[in-house]
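User: I want to check something. If I give you two sequences, will you return the structure for each one separately, not as a complex?

Assistant: Yes, each is folded on its own. Here is the first sequence with its structure:
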Amino acid sequence: QVQLVESGGGLVQPGGSLRLSCAGSGFAFDRWGMTWVRQAPGKEREFVSSISTDGTTSYADSVKGQFTISKDKAKDTVYLQMNSLKTEDTAMYYCAAGQGSLPYWGQGTQVTVS
């Protein structure tokens, strides 16, 4: 059974930092790219960042230079380091297995910047 469990969200002041984690199980984690997606209240889900199996990263323009995605294959975990947080970064953050096509999703972790 595929599971993705996010953690690390919370309430932070503008300018602060958070590191989100997403632990995967039930699938060959090192054979999948991983993606972070967020959804703010009243808005559609939007791509945040992804990392491919070879470590190639991609970011939405809105978070480039602010967020960093990384992957620890030994721990089957993907991270999203978020710095200089802004109120507009407030959203539910989801990790998903895949890139483009995202067949597996976690339950999300709430990030509130206020």
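And separately, the second sequence with its own structure:
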Amino acid sequence: HVQLVESGGGSAQVGGSLRLSCSASADALMYMAWFRQAPGQKREAVAAITTGGSSTMYHDSVKGRFTISRSEDKNTLHLQMNALESEDTGRYYCRLLPFWGQGTQVTVS
């Protein structure tokens, strides 16, 4: 069992920035991803990154604003969020199949 612990959420103004991190308790030797879920909405994938970090994918709504990355030891995942919009509000979850983190809240107003 791998524990995923997110941090870095909070409140930001429209146009501001936040940086999320996710620490895995064991070797994360596969792709990882960030998901988010707004109130009353389905959980959706925001960004994903391969094990080595050479390939990334983004939801269309965050392209050019968010950057996903991971540490050299592969076990820490980051999401740099710039030019935040109110639509980015939601709970952000770290994903390493088949595990989920507990999520961290992001509120943009």
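Because they were folded independently, the notes below concern the second chain alone. DSSP finds no helices and eleven strands in the chain. The chain has a mean pLDDT of 95.
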